[in-house]
Amino acid sequence: MVFVLTSTSPLFYFLAVIFPGKLEASLAGTNLGVVIQALILSVASILVVINGLRTENLQTVELSIIFLGTYVAWAAINGVLLNQSWIGALSLVPLVLATAFGNFSMHDIELGLAWSLAIISSGALVIATFFDGLTQCRADKCLVFEYTFDFGGSQNGFSISVALLGIALVFVQRSFRRRLYVLCLVIPLAILGGSRTAVYTLVSVGLVQLFSTISQNYGLIRILHKITFIGSLGLSLLPLFMTFSDDAFTSRGVLWRSAKQLINDSPIIGNGQSYWTHQFSSQGFVANYGTHNIWLDNLVAFGFVGLSLFMFTLLSIRRRRVNSELYVLLATVFILGTTESSFQLWKLSGGIPFFLLILLFSKEEKSLIQASNKDKSTRRN
After folding, report:
1. Which residues contact 202 (CB under 8 A, 6 or more apart)?
2. Residue from 102, 105, 167 nearest 370 by CA
């Protein structure tokens, strides 16, 4: 029994990354939600570490996970300083430890991604079918269907999770046909989720990933990956540095303007992770779960201290000598984060982007080093 549980620990890990945000959104941040989140994360993390001990192959701690762990710690400290919730952030500590020390292979990651997608999609279908989870969407929101999933308290949250997991699952496939299959499965799910941002991201990034498998011009592929990464980063920064009309991007303009006012009020330590939801839910905003931008979310919640830790996490990932297509995965986070809250540890898609990217970057770097050592050994012989 213990062997079976520890052998499947990567699956528990991925589900633990995904579901805390879903649970907290569904249970509106209640104490029960925090307790369930802490239990899921703790069990999953213990299994991952036990698996590493059993196989005598605990991985070394990556610099990026150290910064991400510090970011989580700041979220808890920030909650204490501002008299807001901090237990939710502390419950993420076991997951940080599992990411830091757990033993994952690329095969484990692929299975974890596939099963996680299958489970959250099945969950959405069950909720929609039996628990009135299929809601009529706004006229400006639905792309194809008249109804969308209302899963985990947010249609957009479901689509963001599908997009992030889907693009990562496409990455670990090495053939054009398998990548096309995955995209054909996840794009309709994102459409049903109702998020246009998620659909556009899947299509644009998916095309880059498909081209990467068919082109033989590796120099051109690397240039394309860099352009995708830099372009997505610049796109995500526009709401931070530009002014938009209040009704721009489905009323996101007013969210971005209000977010900048809050940043000016408390630029250093921010306003706390729950401030936005509690203060602005009563002021008639179209959406009240976040600023709908990855940079503004961080600045409003955790100030420039939190943003600095967030940036250090990104830079420590970015410095690696790995397959350039991994930066397309990072670009996915930025494209989604331009008009959505794609990285909120306390809600929605939770820690999916960076916990997952750290694992993929770590494994890809090690595989390249192993391949390089193998080539050197061959040349000597």
Report:
1. 163, 166, 167, 183, 186, 187, 190
2. 105
Joined together, the tokens standing for residue 253 give 């303009």
Q: What is the pTM assigned to this prediction?
A: 0.84
Residue 141 — φ and ψ, nearest 5°?
A: -105, -45
Q: Is 338 exposed, middle or buried (0-12, 13-18, 19+ CB in 10 A)?
A: buried
Percent of the chain clearing pLDDT 70 (strictly above): 71
Q: Can you read off the two tokens belonging to residue 128?
A: 């929609």
Q: Which two tokens stand for residue 165?
A: 């997991």
Identify whether the C-beta of residue 23 lies closer than 8 Å to the C-beta of residue 37. Answer: yes
Distances (CA, A) of 346 to 107, 261, 290: 28, 22, 11
Locus of tokens 């703790």: 42
Q: What is the pLDDT of residue 225?
A: 92
| Cα 190 to Cα 198: distance, rounded to the nearest angstrom | 6
- Give the CA distances from residue 210 to residues 57, 179, 205, in Å, rounded to whole numbers and listed in that order: 34, 7, 9
- For 126, what's the count of Cα atoms within 13 Å in the CB-facing half-sphere? 7
Q: How far apart are CA 112 and CA 1, in angstroms?
A: 19
CB of 59 closer than 8 Å to CB of 52 = yes
Contact 350, 307 (CB under 8 A): no
Give 3-state DSSP helix, strand, coil % of the chain, rounded to 5.
70, 0, 25
Residue 300 · residue 262 · CB < 8 Å: yes
pLDDT digits (tens, 9 = 90+) for 151-176: 544 567 778 888 888 999 999 888 99
Cα of first residue to Cα of last residue in the chain, in angstroms, is 45
Average pLDDT over residues 32-51: 73
CA dihedral 159, 344, 323, 236 (to 10 degrees): 80
CA distances 225 to 179, 315, 379, Å, are 17, 17, 30
The C-alpha atoms of residue 39 and residue 16 are separated, in whole angstroms, by 9
Rg from Cα positions in the chain: 20
Whether the CB-CB separation of 308 and 279 falls below 8 Å is answered with no
- Express each pLDDT in 321-361 by its tens digit: 667 888 888 899 899 999 888 777 666 456 777 788 888 88
